[in-house]
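Mods, move this if it's the wrong board.
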Amino acid sequence: MVQSRMIDRRLTGTGLGAGMRAGLLALALATAACGTSALRGNLVEDRHLSQLQEGVSTTDDVIAALGPPTARATFDEGIWYYIGERTEQFAFLSPEVVERRVVRVQFDGQGRVASLQQLTLDDAREFALVSRETPTLGRELGLLEQLFGNIGRFDAGGAVDTIGTRGTGI
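Not the wrong board. Structure tokens:
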């Protein structure tokens, strides 16, 4: 008899199993809500890029299709870059780049598109950052030295003129 009640509770969903299922469902929904996706820059879509043709499209056509460039080449105003990436972050973990696209548009002397180049996340190369520090003269000040270091350095008695004597005009 007792055993049949336990089976009945499990079958009807009012026993411990239903509570466990509800708890797991709530936990799954809560963790699913923690993931965020962010878009940074100008992630050019293929449908916009297909509107441009090498040798035909002008700077005005490029701006109309893709918008203003994210960056221009430092030494050549005829090279425009459109840079964008999509990142996803789950809960407190570091964001992960899931899509990155760089579109390089180069113009000829007449302002027409000479070349279009696309770079994606597959074309990216990792490099090691140098962690060296530039040596500087002097010493590092501690917190207390920074807070109280200037006490007594300034005289409230009067201004010092350009020669360094106070108020004598000499």
